[in-house]
Amino acid sequence: MRRLALFVLLAAAAAAPARAQLFDDNEARRRVELLRQQVEAYKKTTEERLAKAEATAQSAADRSALLDLASQIETLRGEIAKMRGQLEVIANQAETAEARQKQLYLDIDTRLRKLETAPPPAAETKPPAPAAESEPSPGEAKAYQAALDQFKLGNYSLAVAAMQGFLVTYPNSSLAANAQYWIGMAHSGQRDYKSAIAAQRKLLTGWPDSPKAPDAMLSIASAQETMGDRASARKTLEELIAKYPASSSAASAKQRLAAAKAR
Hints:
Largest sheet: none
Oligomer: single chain
Distance between the termini: 147 Å
Order of helices and strands: HHHHHHHH
Radius of gyration: 50 Å
Strand content: under 5%
Mean pLDDT: 75
Shape: elongated
Low-confidence stretches: 1-24, 120-132
């Protein structure tokens, strides 16, 4: 029995270091696992902080870009406001010029009608002068002015149609030559220079003594020049000066010829 007890004691004493070694291994593994968990947690925390830092940096960059964009937009708004102001000034000037031009047209037409309807001075040795053309009726004047307004607005196709309709309705009107002239000018506005020349030549054939005849010849020369036919344009200007030397169009023709020679 004593031997058995001694053997048991010796076995227990021998087993103690083994259990201690087993405990130490488990503790080491536990500590390693704990350290691994801590590293993983730190890694996760670091990645989260890095992501936040990148987001913050990106947000700051976005804010900077937005600030730059806002500055550019504000600058553009200022430029647009300035341009709007300039456009308003130009529109006002154009409106004033258009009103003056319209008044000028009316004044010229009124003076022409007065000249056309004015009787010649009385003379005992001369026979009575033939009756002058009558003043246009209110309907004629209204129709003519409506067609002329389309030309002033730049509605050239409508102006052509309206003036042609006027000539059909009032072929013997004192404004007929004027209507034919504006038909040619409307064709020029559409850059249809062949039709413009044909329309002005129709005026010269039908109303050669009209005050608009010199203007028609000047318009023909302009169309020819624009089409590149300088020889024909020069010839037309020379004919204009010869046929209507006292007209303002003849003076313009002389200036054009002088400028062409200087080139």
